[in-house]
Amino acid sequence: MDLALWIIAGLLAAVFLLAGANKLFVPRETLAKAPGGGWVNDFSPRFIKTLGALEILGALGLILPAALGIAPVLVPLAAVGLATIMVGAAIVTYRRHEVAHAILDLTYLALIVFLAVGRFGPEAFGS
């Protein structure tokens, strides 16, 4: 189980690191032209940059605390934060009638919830 949680954490960290970096460093106009990127027109540039920074911090929070052995309780807390972001993402994409993207968001949400539950449990890190 611990190995599965590490694999999921690594994959999710990579996804959120890439997504966050895109939101933080790619101009809003360029993001809007990407497939499924029309949602950025509904939000301010400041919100998009903040969201990108939070996704990067969440990605780091999924890996670094446990890998370094410093406050590993931050891993499930980071997962809860990213889950909150994904709930919002699923709602936004569903309201925009982008069902395929909403399903992808819900898939990421399910993985994040699995990770959070696994890391909050009594044998959180293979103890």
TrEMBL record:
One of its GO terms (cellular component) is membrane. The lineage of its organism: Bacteria, Bacillati, Actinomycetota, Actinomycetes, Propionibacteriales. It comes from Mumia zhuanghuii. The chain crosses the membrane at residues 6-26, 47-67, 73-92, 99-121. It is a multi-pass membrane protein. This is DoxX family protein. The keyword Membrane applies. It is found in: Membrane. Keywords: Membrane, Transmembrane, Transmembrane helix. InterPro entries: DoxX.
